[in-house]
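Chapter review. Work through the record for Metal-dependent phosphohydrolase before attempting the end-of-chapter questions.
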Amino acid sequence: MGTVPAWARAYVAGVVLLALACLAPLLHLRVPWGIVAPLAVLYAGCERVTLPLLPRAAGAPGGDTARGMGTFLPVLLAGAFLLPPSAAALVALPGALLAPVERRPRGPRRIWRAAQLAVAVWAASRTYGACGGRETLVTPDFPYALVPAGAAALTFCAVLTVLDGGILALAERAPVRGAWHGLFARSLAPVAVHGLAGLMMAVLWRSPYGPVAALLVLLPMYVSCWVFAQYHRERAAHQATIRALVQAVDIKDGYTRGHSERVGRASVMIAHELGMHDERVEVLRFAGILHDVGKLGVPTRLLRKDGPLTPEERRVIELHPEYGHEMVRGIGFLGEARSAILHHHERLDGSGYPYGLAGAQIPEFARVVAVADAFDAMTSTRSYRRARPVRAALEELARCAGTQFDPRMVAALARALDRHGWHPVVTADTAPAVASGMPPAHPSGTVGRSAP
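Structure tokens for Metal-dependent phosphohydrolase:
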């Protein structure tokens, strides 16, 4: 575990000890192997079969094993409903320890996942028993039976959230304030659905139809898993296309290398301050990343020109928002991002381009990206000038708020920077500085524009 930070190793060790404490009563109790063994084998088999279907989520805690973390939770939750807490925790161990892991260190990742799931299943089973759930399996009482099952699913989700946030903060070095942000909300719906499937498995297992009938519940879950995987494969293909377009822009316009990714990040910070839903935040991130993709349609000699632009050359460069809009109009999931790409150079006073929109006529996403674009342009080092300090850039944005920029977006960025700071990967152009006394070619008199 040499590559894992010391605090993260201590955290994982603590969770492993907690998992062992959850399993300790098995030393003195009779293990119901007739239920534990089939469920453990079934869970391990499901993880091995379905894990390759799912794309790995970038930054997911636990690395590659996180791909399958929710695939067959019904098996684990069925164990929580059917078994005492310690025996239920045992069900998760073989599948977690045998699951394929691509990222190193593989052993610690498997151990972490096994301990995390064991603790979560133990807590869910404990909650289920405390709410009287065991009696509902013997004497079914619908809909009352849903209450203890729902409480167990909530407990399972909460424990995973707490543990995942801790490993994100310590091992992935995520900001402490944001490590747990959105984890519970994103996990709740899938865990609730899997909890219902687990409850159906448990009820059928205890019914006269027996364990074989309980296995039939997994068939629709596998189908849904396959559909889910197809959706994410398509999404991953779109993201790969977006990355290729951004890399092409960075190569073509050396003055702004890395600019697109940073604008995407700043746009997300603004979106969080505005309270946007996660789905819109993701689309806005794409808008920030792709806002300059239209530069691919602009002659390279104009983007790299060392002298002042002629009026004709400036008009050609000012076509890049329309070029960009045409390039991405067929990517359906971008949604509002397309309008941001088209209108991110509009100004609040109506003097921008390409259509001279003013005020509320400018789409919200475009107003966000305009502020993020200007902020990064001012705080990035370029071949023709040094970066401004963050505070100076914010003062300039505030000065232009109400004429060029939406004051609400400027204020949101300022709050986000006060809260989180600004620590982007700086990718400065390595070309020699402009030696002549002429003004830089790309910035116009308008604040923050690295190119028209």
